[in-house]
Amino acid sequence: MVGLKSKIYDLVHSNTARLYWEKKEKAIDLIHWEALQQALEEVPRTRKHFIIKHTMRMCGVGKFMKLWKKQVTDACPCCGSPEDSNHVWICDKMGALDLWNKSLLELGEWMEENQTDPHYMVLLNAIH
User: Fold this and answer.
1) Which of 19, 37, 51, 84 has its CA 20 to 30 A from that of 31?
2) What is the end-to-end Cα distance of the chain in Å, rounded?
3) Residue 75: DSSP 8-state
4) Cβ–Cβ < 8 Å for 62, 54
5) How many other CB atoms sit within 10 Å of the CB of residue 64?
6) What is the C-alpha separation between 114 and 112, in angstroms, rounded?
7) Residue 110: helix, strand or coil by DSSP?
8) CA distance 88 to 103
């Protein structure tokens, strides 16, 4: 019964997320829903929560930490700019860019090892 409950939960929330993104973003067609579902099935529920919160831009960054009264400022701890979920990916202060580049390199290596679609490797190389 636990497996069924989990599966229903995942399906309900998948449709909810899809409807949200259809209204909010035009990039809905760029999401590979089947791959996303498979990836989420392979991570613990707590990790799923992190991924979903970050994707929905409602994660523990300065903007929300201030809103939730967990800190007094929304400033990025690296550069001092207002920190939202997008800022986390673009901050280039105090090693953030080095960490980003290292992470992209590791992702690229993983993609090659797992023989992912070469089209995505081209995109990854363009970002890096």
Assistant:
1) 84
2) 45
3) B
4) no
5) 18
6) 5
7) helix
8) 13
